[in-house]
Amino acid sequence: MTDFDWEQELRRMVETYSPMLLRAALTRVSTPADAEDAVQDVFLRVLSKRPCFRDRDHEKAWLLRAALNRASDIRRRRRDDAPLDELAGTALEAPDYGPLLSAVRSLPEAYSAVIHLYYYEGYSIKEIARLLALPVPTVGTRLARGRERLRDLLKEEDFA
Are residues 91 and 111 in the same domain? Predict the structure, then answer.
């Protein structure tokens, strides 16, 4: 592939996948800016590594996993680097996503990812399994457990 072709391909990926990757990253980080950083890092990695994808499904799955992993890294780094008084201030300034999405975001990563992909992105359990490189039964279990935890969280908040 020539440099021009690669540039066009990267532009297509950015235009096609950025909104989905941003939404997915937001399930793992506290701010839209951190989600944007995660997605930008993923596309920079694509630009520097120029991975070879089998097909569009493989491309989409790779980008999604990379965005979720990078967002998790950013969240861990923010948590490890910030003093407690800074964390308190950040929590007050964090955008209000509403009680349901906030509850989804507060779930452990394994559950929030599958719930987000299932309910917010509209993927089937089989598609999620393929995207996250997990067995179908594992995705089903995580979805069921995530729903249960979400139900408990929402009951605590008197939302449900």
Answer: no
This prediction has a pTM of 0.69
Note down the domain range covering 132: 96-160
Residues 81-97 pLDDT 10s: 555 444 444 443 445 55
Q: Point out the domain boundary residue: 59, 80, 95.
A: 95
For 129-146, write each residue's pLDDT tens digit: 988 889 999 999 999 999
Domain boundary among 95, 118, 134: 95
Residues 6+ apart with CB under 8 A from 91: 30
Handedness of CA 82, 29, 55, 9 (dihedral sign): negative
Q: What's CA 101's distance to the chain center, in Å? A: 13
